[in-house]
Design a protein that fits this description.
Elements: H1 3-17, E1 25-28, E2 38-40, E3 49-55, E4 67-69, E5 71-74, E6 88-98, E7 122-132, E8 142-145, E9 152-154, E10 162-171, E11 182-186, E12 195-201, E13 209-212, E14 228-231, E15 244-248, E16 255-261, E17 264-269, E18 274-278, E19 282-287, E20 295-299, E21 312-323, E22 326-338, E23 355-357, E24 360-362, E25 364-367
Antiparallel strand pairs: 1-25, 2-11, 3-10, 3-12, 4-9, 5-8, 5-25, 6-7, 6-10, 11-24, 12-23, 13-22, 14-15, 15-20, 16-19, 16-21, 17-18, 21-22
Amino acid sequence: MRPSLLFSAISIGFLGLGLSAQTATTISPKSGATIGNSNNNFPYSWVPTRYQQIFDYDSFTHGNQPFVMKGVRYRMNKSFANGRYGGKTVTLSMWLGDAAKGVTAASFSRTFDSNINQTTKKMVIKKKAFLMPKLSNQNFDIKIPFDSGSAFVFIPTKKIALVQEVINWGNNNSNRFFTYPLVAMRVASSTKRETSRLYAYNFNQGSGSYRTNGTFSGCRNLKNGLPSHYSNLTDLKVGGAGYYLYGYSRLAKAPSFLVLGVKSLNVPIFGKGCFLKNDLVLVFTGVAQNNSLGYVRFNLPIPNLPSLANAKFYSQLWFAQLTSSGPYFYASRGLMVTIGDGKTKTPDQYKVATGASTGYGLITQFHN
């Protein structure tokens, strides 16, 4: 083929795609083009997050023409469009791509990489900070343009959903979430799903976990109050200087005993349905607050020793109700606690979504 004919063919191809220039914008889901029925902070004003939104091929307002996408825009929820919310900077990366075979807004995987055809996945924003503006209107004025020279051509006639992936790397609010709800759309389960979302994040980076040790839920005091027992999560990690265990006696000023051990037990004690849930390696004493809840807290700083990562220990709270005939002892559930390694993950390391919403997502305006 002569060069002149080759360039003519290329020009004709791009001219065909250029039909989308007749429409400067397109909105999905189209059921929310006028106004949505919900709002959400994911992913732009949340903690560092990996996020995907799936848009079915027929969920766009512009119809079946190819569309050259060069940026996205959003609207502020009406209850917050008063000029008081925003002003924070968020660092983002973004990709667009065709959905993998069989993936639609109604049927998708919790594994992020399984939803997108990797051969079509294109980075449209490498990594850039965007200011979330303070708005007093509900126009599409929250603007996130793609990098210069970056565009994605979406072709609805292929009948393949579009997948948008966003990495929220963090913000200038100490990477904490801030109130900035964008307009979203939720459709009933009986209605065709136009868009869906999935996401992964962790409020307690590097922290461990805890769960109930066995099935014992506690034994009650003489006023029928059932005590409770919990672990702090934020500092449940190597070097967690602010770590603590806490609970509620359901009795004002009850003498309190925190029992720590390294072995799980299930020993009936005091003959009234109470069970000792772990061995007695350490015992700490305190007094519950002077109210009906009886809050009590024990501070237990965790040393900065890497060898403690993933170490487990057991805990239980015991309380004494003072009576004329002597103390009446009752207990909370037991806990099995695992210490975290203190290491943080960047959001791109999340492989599997921690949450998903079918038939729900941000109302997104794409522009060319």
